[in-house]
Design brief:
Elements: H1 2-29, E1 32-39, E2 44-53, H2 57-64, H3 67-73, E3 77-85, E4 91-98, E5 107-116, E6 120-128, E7 132-142, E8 145-155, H4 162-187
Antiparallel strand pairs: 1-2, 2-8, 3-4, 4-5, 5-6, 6-7, 7-8
Length: 189
């Protein structure tokens, strides 16, 4: 408790000194809109995030539908394997292995990804360590740009403090969307 008080005191004294850099950091973080809603009665929640990308949807699409790219973009994802694919390529069954951090167990789960090219990807957990996982990507064309919308609904199936889930989503969703934007924009030049 005493250490916490020292940290709070040190941060409160350092804010005026670092005020300009904090303002700049806040401005940089406003490029990705994130909203997180957690159910206080259950271990579940929903988050939405959006980012504007200076690339057309056909450049962004292969980045959000590739296991190779997912391993680069998704924090903690260390395994991604396509187990099966429909004959027309409109859906896949994929196994993910997520090793997020030391305080969350390694998770293995299978998802069904349904593709409505080049606008929408719908993902739903079909088996594994998570109780619920639903993800939707919507790519909204806007001239030569794309607004990428990401929605995730999840229930881990084990107890995790709400503040940990909220902090992780608020930190990692912008990180993932910025990485997506950087990769797409570098490919569209």
């Amino acid at each position: 408790m005493r250490a916490l008080l020292y940290i709070v005191a040190a941060l409160s004294f350092s804010v005026p000194v670092f005020g300009a850099s904090l303002a700049k950091e806040a401005e940089q973080h406003s490029d990705v809109e994130v909203a997180v809603v957690l159910d206080p009665a259950e271990q579940s929640g929903k988050a939405t995030a959006s980012v504007r990308i200076h690339a057309r949807p056909e450049v962004v699409w292969p980045l959000i539908t590739s296991c190779t790219e997912a391993l680069v973009l998704v924090p903690g994802l260390e395994g991604c394997e396509v187990l099966s694919e429909s004959a027309d390529g409109s859906s896949q069954i994929i196994r993910h292995i997520l090793n997020y951090s030391w305080y969350v167990p390694k998770l293995t789960y299978e998802i069904r990804a349904v593709y409505d090219k080049p606008i929408r990807v719908s993902v739903e957990r079909i088996s594994g360590d998570l109780k619920k996982l639903q993800v939707t990507w919507i790519l909204e064309p806007d001239g030569d740009e794309t607004v990428a919308h990401y929605v995730i609904e999840l229930a881990p199936g084990f107890w995790v403090p709400h503040w940990v889930v909220s902090a992780a989503l608020r930190r990692d969703l912008p990180k993932m969307l910025r990485a997506l934007r950087a990769r797409a924009e570098s490919r569209s030049r």
